[in-house]
Design a protein that fits this description.
The longest helix is centred in the middle third of the chain and has 20 residues, at about 110-130. The model has no long low-confidence stretch (mean pLDDT about 85). The protein is of the alpha/beta class and about 230 residues long. The chain has helices spanning about 15-25, 35-45, 60-70, 85-95, 110-130, 155-165, 175-185, 190-205, and strands at about 5-10, 30-35, 50-55, 80, 100-105, 130, 135-140, 145, 150-155, 210-215, 220-225. About 25% of the residues are buried. Helices cover about 45% and strands about 20% of the residues. The strands form three sheets. Strands 2-1-3-4-5 form a five-stranded parallel sheet, sandwiched between helices. It has a four-stranded antiparallel sheet with strand order 6-7-8-9. It has a two-stranded antiparallel sheet with strand order 10-11.
């Protein structure tokens, strides 16, 4: 099994070592540095799968590092950690620079591990652009779902919707989340568009042996893998 490498950027030694211990216990290789400049120097010579970075640090802060990283490696997951003070504006700035996820101090370490694993999963899916189930293959570039002998090409939005749900089995997505991500925040379509596409997918794949799409009343939809 491949050991994944996480780079942690934090100027407070006690936190740096705490994050390292927790992540190494989970089976990751962990590299640690104290500021963005040290991280930038290290990342040129080391393979890194994910970055966890503080914001406020000497020499080069988390914002500047993330901005540099996005120019050279736009696909690398970045989890940014910040104090709770002025969190909304910090979060907005971070996301605008390309941060993938956020946590506030004091960090819940169990949650940090879960978020790291989710980001790594998402990164793996994005790089492969292919989901392989026991009997079904989803090819992102071709917009095809192969089940049985022949690949079936789906309309773009239907495919993106199915790919999203199957990428995160058992995760509930609200209709608003799906609308924002697949249609975009400025779309003129209403939320019933999601229901229409979900119903079409259910009809297409009602006999699929690998998955089914479930309605979670009052919340949204999720894909469930069959035994």
């Amino acid at each position: 099994m491949q050991i994944l490498t996480i780079l942690v950027i934090e100027d407070e030694d006690s936190l740096l070592q705490l994050y390292r211990i927790v992540l190494e216990k989970e089976g990751f290789k962990v590299l640690t540095v104290h500021n963005g400049q040290e991280a930038w120097d290290l990342i040129e010579n080391e393979h890194v799968d994910l970055v966890i970075t503080d914001i406020l640090m000497p020499v080069m802060d988390g914002y500047e590092f993330t901005k540099l990283l996005r120019h050279s490696n736009p696909g690398m997951p970045v989890l940014m950690i910040t104090a709770k003070d002025d969190f909304p504006s910090k979060k907005n700035k971070g996301f605008s620079l390309g941060t993938d996820d956020y946590m506030t101090k004091p960090v819940n370490l169990d949650e940090m591990v879960l978020r790291v694993r989710a980001l790594l999963r998402r990164s793996h899916i994005a790089s492969n652009k292919r989901l392989t189930l026991p009997h079904t293959i989803l090819d992102y570039d071709a917009l095809t779902v192969t089940w049985g002998d022949d690949p079936q090409m789906l309309p773009q939005k239907e495919f993106f919707l199915l790919f999203k749900l199957i990428s995160y089995p058992n995760k509930i997505f609200t209709r608003m989340q799906l609308m924002d991500e697949i249609w975009g925040r400025n779309s003129e379509s209403d939320l019933q568009t999601i229901d229409v596409h979900i119903n079409r997918l259910r009809r297409r794949f009602e006999n699929n042996p690998d998955f089914e799409i479930i309605t979670v009343r009052g919340l949204g939809y999720k894909a469930v893998m069959k035994e």
